Amino acid sequence: MPRFAYEATTAAGQVMHGTMDATSPSDLIARLRGMGYFPTHIEEAAPEVKRRLRLGTGIRAKEIEFFTLQMATLVNAGVQIDRALRVCGEQMPNPYLRQVVEQIRYDVEHGSSFADALGRHPKLFSPLYVNMVEAGQAGGVLGVVLQRLADFTKQQRELRDSVTSALIYPMILLGFVGLIIVALTFFVIPRFVVMFQDVGVALPIYTRLLIGGVDFVRSPYGVAWVWSGIPLPGVLLTILVIAAVSARQYSRTEAGKRVFDRLRMKLPLAGNVVRNFALVRLMQTMSTLMENGVTLLPALRIAKDTVGSVSYEEALGVAASEIERGSNLSGPLSESGLFPPIVTDMLAIGEESGEPEQMLARLAEYYDREIKRSLERMVAALGPLLILFMAGIVVFIALAIVLPIFNLSQMLR
Questions:
Q1: Fold of 59-155
Q2: Which of 213, 223, 221, 177 is CA-nearest to residue 193?
């Protein structure tokens, strides 16, 4: 039931302000008059969004995907945005998401664009999501863009689920090995060290390295140490925490975004996926806009904000400036060094034939398949690498403990 804000006067002339739930303004007027008030102004109040929404803990990504799919279906059927939002809000099983949808509808009905209304909820709708919606509104293809966003969100969720499923077993092993290492470090190995020192047996290099590592971890300069029975963080742990917090703060600056974006693209396994994601977003957005009548330069400027990569945004900004001076699209992209030759060559062919949007659509399909193959290879490689890493740790610790015992038994014989 909607909530209305009202201003009313009493029989004594006192002005009253408040809010009340009612099915319609006329229903509210009848209620106020029944209370002895004379309403002078009534307007629908903005719904309140609870604090929990700001934390992003009440709404799942799957529910955002369902909302996007519903909006795409309604908009493609010719339903106005405000009415579509009202229908979606009524069908939302999650009360927190229902409040957000009502807030978005209120903003739209009071003059905000759909993209601006979404942008007021950054915890739920990413900049890519908002920019894609803005691009769809600018090109008159909002329904198509929402459908692609729903498909893209579903694809991301499925990929995330597949990666999580593939890494469950290695992560369980990693946690189990971590617990074993902690137990050995703080309880088992110190007792063996005392025994080895009492006997005076010669320690192999593995054991000396392990003892040195354990002593450092348990020292004030390591990770955790104990002073008068109180566990305290060591210097190394403090430095790591400070470095992590500083890196997070730096990543929010313009220079930091640029640096971390370049680092992401240079990662051994994930860098190729990051680059391909940026290319798919660019090609899909531009092809959708140009197929619906948007010319090259406006489509490029709109799509520039959807790629999700600072490096690609800067390269596309330079390309837009060159196009204003009369250049084509493929030339500046080729000079940037970020776009593979297949992209620039196919774009050049599309520009020569006068149908660049078709080439963009084909490139989007190609890189979409390439993303899936890259992710499959990445997941297939991470599992064995993680297991090999854990096996190496276990073997090293086993050798460091077993070899001195073997030497001790040889001495006793």
A1: Receptor-associated Protein (1.20.81)
A2: 213
Distance of CA 96 to the CA centre of its chain: 20
Residues 6 or more apart whose CB falls under 8 angstroms from that of 247 comprise: none
Cα–Cα nearest to 330, from 307, 348, 357: 348
**Rounded Cα–Cα distance for residues 71 and 148 (Å):** 12
Closest CA to 305 of 155, 150, 134, 146: 134
Pick the CATH number of 168-413 from 1.20.81.30, 1.10.10.10, 3.90.220.20, 3.40.50.300: 1.20.81.30
Q: What angle do CA 359, 294, 317 make, to 5 degrees?
A: 75
Q: Give the tokens for residue 189.
A: 């190995």
Tell me how many helices (H) and strands (E) the chain has.
18, 5
Q: How many angstroms from the chain centroid is the CA of residue 299?
A: 25
With beta carbons less than 8 A apart as the criterion, state whether 363 and 261 touch.
no
What's the average model confidence in pLDDT over 324-341? 87
Tell the burial category of 223 from Cβ atoms under 10 Å away from its Cβ (0-12, 13-18, 19+): middle
Q: Tokens in use for 106? A: 């209120």
For residue range 11-43, what is the model confidence (pLDDT) as tens digits?
A: 777 777 766 667 777 877 887 887 778 888 887
On the question of a common fold for 59-155 and 168-413, the answer reads: yes
Query: Given this model, what pLDDT does residue 50 score?
Result: 45
The structure tokens listed for 55 are: 């934390």
Residue 174 has pLDDT above 80, yes or no: no
Q: Considering only CA atoms, which of 328, 291, 333, 298 is closest in space to residue 313?
A: 333
The string of pLDDT tens digits covering residues 196-214 is: 777 766 778 888 888 888 7
Answer yes or no: are the C-beta atoms of 317 and 296 closer than 8 Å: no
Identity of the amino acid at 109: E
Structure tokens at 179: 């617990």
Instruction: Identify the burial level of 47 via C-beta atoms within 10 angstroms of its C-beta, where 0-12 means exposed, 13-18 middle and 19 or more buried.
Output: middle
pLDDT reported for residue 53: 43
Alpha helices in 92-222 (DSSP H): 95-109, 114-119, 127-139, 142-183, 189-199, 205-217
Q: Specify whether the CB–CB gap between 75 and 146 falls below 8 A.
A: yes
Amino acid at site 164: T
What does the pLDDT read at residue 245?
Answer: 94
- pTM value is 0.65
Residue type, 348: A
Question: What residue segments make up the domains of the chain, in order of their start?
Answer: 3-44, 59-155, 168-413
